[in-house]
Design goal:
With 216 residues, the protein is mainly alpha-helical. It has one domain. Helices cover 69% and strands 0% of the residues. Keywords: Signal.
Length: 216
Amino acid sequence: MSLRATLAVLAAAVLSAACGSRPPAPQWQLNARGAIERYQQAFLAGSTRAADAEFARARAELAATGQPALVARAELNRCALQVASLAFGPCPGFDALRADAAPAERAYAAYLAGEPADTGLLPPQHRAVAGGATGAAALRSIEDPLARLVAAGVLVRSGRADPQVLELAADTASAQGWRRALLAWLGAQAQRAEQAGDPAQAQRLRRRMALAAGEL
């Protein structure tokens, strides 16, 4: 399940409680939802210390329920944000809880790793890429910007990204003001430009990176 889906589940619980016909939502749901939202924004903005603190807070609230599946989902969403920012690596937090994760979460973990996954268990916006689609056309149909960046990261990780994928991902991160993700995608573009023998383009991209990083 994606981070947006996780937030939707928590929000639904809060809204149903607000109707007055049910008991108030447990405090952990409110706390976890707020912490996850703040974690996402801090991570994508490049505020590592704030992001780590908010994720720890969210994880503690979810762990207090004694439900491994909830914590596994949060850990998996953490890895999805890393993929969206081209920070590839293992997903140890999820792996430690994999045995108690639902099949949909295990399929999503495989997808994030660039491995074959059961497309029927994935969120609809990721099924085309998981099914083998390549190129920017596969991303333009994904309306949610974070999901689009995650899918773009999967394309890069699985060796299926072309220059248009990198450009679209950079434009998506730029439009949202997500500094960490933008720097990662601009860096990937600059590297490809250098490899293609286009130093002028590489320099232009690195100037954009310097601007985004506050160095200009």
